[in-house]
Amino acid sequence: MSGTIYVRPQGGSYLASVAELPGCVARGATRDEAVASVRRALPEYVALLARHGVSSEHWRGLDPATFEVRDYTADEGFAEDFRPLEEHELRDFLHQMEGSRAALLALVRGLSSEEAERKPTPDTWSVREALEHIAQTEATLVGRLEKWPDEVGSLQAVHRMAFQRFSILEPKDTMLDHRIWGQRWSVRRVMRRILEHEREHMEHIKEIMAALGARRAPE
Fold it and tell me: Rounded to 5 degrees, what are φ and ψ at 67?
């Protein structure tokens, strides 16, 4: 079974993605290095998913050596991403999500807070920064499903996630008082910032709508 590799420049290097196997990506200093890396990465990625309970039958026939290589256009995305989604593909995606997250958690499990905060060099990320970036980007991408403002499923899903996180805090968790990137944080400070941030942007949205002459419902 053949497939397609899409390549794009990113951050001074190149990123190659396998269209038929979402999540299978690799980086290289040059375009050719990225392509060679993702060809090697495909069987490793399939094996990783299998180790975490994800069926790999759909991808076992893929031969990365035969894949066509194309340049990625950000505005258009992968051509394969715009065909109708079959029911089994949604199930496969959900299983991949769970398998990929299990692999990520296994990777960082056992790190101390100090290790998660530490940067290899001043110009690189810490493990904590990488994990926060994953969480923030996931919320942003889920928002791409919505036709704002009529459909707010993603907005509410993130809200429910945050609400649940606070609702399951144990008494000992509420005593949190630690420093992240030099700033002191507590549960109360996070709670305050969530409420203040939403209020700030409510006022921001009012200003945008007023500037556009848009009508809004009374509060």
Answer: -65, 140
pLDDT band at 216 (very low <50, low <70, confident <90, very high): low
Spacing of C-alpha 102 from chain mean position: 14
Which residues form the domain of 65? Answer: 1-84
Q: How far apart are CA 179 and CA 168, in angstroms?
A: 22
Q: What does pTM read for this prediction?
A: 0.82
Residue 19 in any domain: the answer is: yes
Backbone torsions φ then ψ of 195, nearest 5 degrees: -70, -40
Average pLDDT over residues 167-185: 90
The residues, any chain, with a CB within 8 Å of residue 25's CB and separated by 6 or more, are 15, 16, 17, 18, 38, 41
Considering the domain boundaries, does residue 105 fall inside one?
no
- Whether the Cβ atoms of residue 9 and residue 74 lie closer than 8 Å to each other: no
Q: How far is residue 141's CA from residue 144's CA, in Å, rounded to a whole number? A: 5
Q: Is the pLDDT of residue 217 over 60?
A: no
CATH number assigned to the domain comprising residue 59: 3.30.160
Handedness of CA 133, 136, 141, 142 (dihedral sign): positive
Query: Based on the structure, what is the number of domains in the chain?
Result: 1
The conformation of residue 28, written as its DSSP 8-state character, comes to E
Closest alpha carbon to 44 in 28, 29, 30, 64: 64
